[in-house]
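Message: I would love a firmer grasp of how sequence relates to backbone shape in proteins. Thank you; the sequence and its tokens follow:
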Amino acid sequence: MIQKKKLWIILILIISLLAIFSNTCIARNDPITDPNSYKPGNINASDANVVTSKAGVIFNVISTLGIITAVITIVVIGIKYMIGSVEEKAEYKKTMIPYLIGVVMIGSISGILRLIASLAANIE
């Protein structure tokens, strides 16, 4: 028992040390004293448009899959709710509320992100 406790303490200590000291950055030139040393490269507007379009496609696929999965889950829980007994209905009702909140959040977050993307595209 004592060995397991020591093992857990050592494991937590190692994980916390890794989390604290993992943010190490090594830089050759200091951009604060020499701003000309920072050259990220030439990025064309066409390159930015390609990245934006690919990211938009990936976002739309993930958003659509999330909404479809959430709706199917709600439908299955709803059917179980209609068929179940009184005790089962109480359980399904408890599980249905977080799923409904999740569906609303997925829809609203994806809508907000699409709005931000369209506003950012019109800034140019």
Summary: The mean pLDDT is 77. The two ends are 64 Å apart (CA to CA). The CA atoms of residues 79 and 92 lie 10 Å apart.
